[in-house]
Fold LacI family transcriptional regulator.
Amino acid sequence: MANVTIKDVARVAQVSVATVSRALNGHGNVAEEVRNRVFAAARELRYTPHAAARSLSSRRTQTLGVVLPDLHGEFFSELMRGIDQVARENSLHLLVSSYHGHPQEQGAALRAMRGRVDGLLVMSPYMDAPAVLDDSLPLVLINSQCASEGVASLGVDNYGGAFTMVEHLVMGGHRRIAFIAGPSDNFDAHERLRGYRDALARFAPEAEPWVVAGDFDEASGHRAGLVLLEAAHRPEAVFAANDMMALGCLFALAQTGVQVPGDIALAGFDDIPMARYVHPSLTTVRVNIAELGARAARMLIAQVAEGVVVSPRPKALVPELIVRESSAPAWRRRAGPAGS
């Protein structure tokens, strides 16, 4: 039956429109016999409540907004997988937008969400990001230094993860450890660089930091790899600030006949799914990216339901060192055929 309305359901069930509305929305002040009659009428007429009308009455859209710096790459795919899983478990929809790596466009993406979502998940990793706060909407920030008192935020211990990786490489006998950095205006990249520098100073104080610019993508990792190979003395190990750059670097090394880990050890950060399937498999710092998204979504849903900020300052997710084939100890390399 086309264009069935709530009035039609009320007529068939022989109750008022208000009673139909209360029954379908689960209110308790409806007798069980009446509720059953309303549901039977709705099934008979194949009535589906109009989402927009229901939003007007409940002031809820049943939709969460997600604003990310980009949508390209395995990191964001995994993050969205975690968010989407929790949203589906709670019968919620997602409205997703990206500001394409341009912080100045973040405000436009946020404004586009107003009136269309019940709350916002915002990843704002830029050091000089504009204010993202909107008092009218529940908000959870992901991997951001912009969080202030009373604002829910969830992040990763990027500093600790990088520190642990450098310790692993130094304990493996490596001293000339180059670092492929992420964007200079990115908070995650800044913390990983800081962890690299501090760990090198602690565990190999005689070693000089060796930092090559990168941009968190494969192409910049490839370029950095070629730059490192042009040095008079090649690094013993390369630590890339994320796995995408590590994979780009791995390709550059392979192109020039440099073996990993036979000639140069290599490591990344994030543990994207591809990291375990390349050859050699990539040593990295595991961030449970899907769980990061899922946990942020749960925080936002609780905030929407309760109307208050839940756990505004949760403990950062602690990354896990994952040792694979690409970071063999230096002495194992020396025991084999001589490298370049």
